[in-house]
């Protein structure tokens, strides 16, 4: 992670060595703290959404926007995030992402419907910048043999952030009210910003000194790192290559993968937004217990994310997609017929949702022949998939508001999971 990484063409080795204070563990530690801010804020309102709706008179549809808006930003704000990195350098982009998340968190804590929605949009933009820039930093400043390990740590930290906010928001709300419970997670952004500043140096983190402008990144998973069980995301501009595949929009397999990714994202964000409320209504859990229970669904994603690549070294992706969909189906179906076994369904669904996105990335890796094809296909699949996924919380909330129950929302999630399994397995049928 210093000048001895062996990476050529970065033009930053001297600065990185000084900024990292010579400690190889410091950059991964800072990345972990940064990552805690990139999923937790999306999950934070869910455990107290009942209190928010009661205080502000929000409908279930509007409440669903609190999860929908950040996901929509993932799909629409990526070009802006790429421009920020190119204009301000990767180090400053990380700092800016944390600052934007902090500002959005504070705005969202104001007990007014408009402030909630505006703050959520600001958070979504900040997280989008972080989603794009952290792979740039990992790829650039980590030695090749450790890229997979650091990427796996980063991915795990995203889910840990979701777990922490799921566990902590409701108890804090019980003591000091939901505005404080939502605002308090801004402390994580402050801690991460301090750690990042120490790691790379104040000049690089905030003033961009001693750095050349970054090449405009285009994110996309291009290489499976089997020894660590992660998918490496490359955001490094390279020399042009000869195009070997048609544009993604002209290939049916790309549309299939986009629909599969959309089914995965729709299901995940719909359940993330409404599981605490569902457990309160169906099981009788109080607000604190519902939030803590929903954290199981978040943290089990680590198992799927790390386990699927191991399976992919032994079985064809098509088989794994069917297996993932089978376990995924257990959650909406189980909550419909036996909600009292919610813990079992959350374990199965949590592991499946972590494995679902990973296996789609692996399919992309094995379908393409070069980095350029991978980036274009990944951008198409994720862009369209996140657009579909952003509708999940909104649709589930609208159906719950219209019917007063959870059967229709869960059936919708079930259909989305079936789309992941059926369309995904068909799209991957020729992939080995």
What can you see in these coordinates?
The protein has 432 residues and is an all-alpha fold. It has two domains: 203 residues, Growth Hormone, Chain: A (Up-down Bundle), CATH 1.20.1250.20; 208 residues, Growth Hormone, Chain: A. 74% of the residues lie in helices and 2% in strands. It contains 19 helices and two strands. A two-stranded antiparallel sheet has the order 1-2. The longest helix has 33 residues. The N terminus is likely disordered.
How are the SSEs placed, and which strands pair?
Layout: H1 13-19, H2 26-35, H3 40-43, H4 49-56, H5 60-76, H6 78-88, H7 90-108, H8 113-141, H9 147-176, H10 178-183, H11 186-200, H12 202-207, E1 221-225, E2 230-233, H13 252-282, H14 287-299, H15 301-312, H16 317-337, H17 342-367, H18 371-403, H19 407-427
Antiparallel strand pairs: 1-2
Helix pairs in contact: 2-9, 2-11, 5-8, 5-13, 5-18, 6-7, 6-8, 7-8, 7-11, 9-14, 9-15, 13-14, 13-17, 13-18, 13-19, 14-17, 15-17, 16-17, 16-19, 18-19
What is the total tally of β strands? 2
CATH topology of the largest domain: Growth Hormone, Chain: A
Quick one: biggest sheet? 2 strands, antiparallel
Radius of gyration computed on alpha carbons: 21 Å
* Contiguous uncertain segments of 5+ residues: 1-20, 218-243
Helix content: over 70%
> What amount of the residues lies in strands?
under 5%
In oligomeric terms, what are we looking at?
single chain
Task: Give the termini separation.
Answer: 34 Å
Morphology: globular
Just give the CATH class of the largest domain: Mainly Alpha
What do the pLDDT scores average to?
Answer: 83
Task: List the secondary-structure elements in sequence, H or E.
Answer: HHHHHHHHHHHHEEHHHHHHH
CATH architecture of the largest domain: Up-down Bundle
CATH homology superfamily name of the largest domain: MFS general substrate transporter like domains
Reading side by side through the largest sheet, how are the strands ordered?
Answer: 1-2
Number of domains: 2
- What class do helices, strands and sheet pairing give? mainly alpha
